[in-house]
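Section 5: illustrative case.
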């Protein structure tokens, strides 16, 4: 998916596209780490095998944080929660553990591809989460109405 600019409006179409991407990636990761990658994992050195398992959990953690954040954005769009509620710490994008860069070069290509894809998706959603301006989500009083109110009070 293309680079996401944090200044891009968070539209239902963007949230839907990111959600679909996250769900497809989660399904691919589950299939690989639970089934298809077993042979590759079992052929690794014992310490690398432990690292492989840790990285699979990190992929899952990243994706679950992304999916939860996107579901929150859907709830805002549906009017189930307010933008202010969506910005509470519990509903912001959760922290994802960093990948062990020294380990990644020792993992199978398929595992590395999933790790990189989850990191990329998480980074794009992180920029959206960080780029959301709390003040921008709240309605602002019109400067013209404010001036009219002041004039009415004065006269």
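Designed sequence:
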């Amino acid at each position: 998916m293309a680079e996401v600019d944090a200044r891009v409006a968070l539209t239902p179409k963007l949230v839907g596209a990111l959600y679909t991407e996250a769900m497809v990636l989660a399904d691919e990761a589950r299939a690989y780490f639970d089934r298809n990658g077993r042979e590759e994992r079992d052929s690794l050195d014992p310490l690398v095998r432990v690292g492989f398992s840790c990285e699979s959990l990190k992929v899952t953690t990243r994706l679950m944080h992304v999916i939860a954040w996107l579901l929150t954005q859907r709830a805002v769009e549906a009017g189930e929660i307010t933008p202010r509620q969506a910005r509470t710490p519990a509903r912001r994008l959760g922290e994802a553990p960093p990948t062990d860069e020294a380990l990644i070069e020792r993992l199978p290509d398929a595992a590395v591809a999933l790790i990189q894809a989850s990191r990329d998706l998480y980074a794009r959603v992180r920029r959206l989460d960080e780029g959301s301006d709390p003040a921008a989500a709240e309605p602002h009083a019109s400067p013209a109405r404010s001036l009219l109110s002041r004039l009415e009070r004065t006269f």
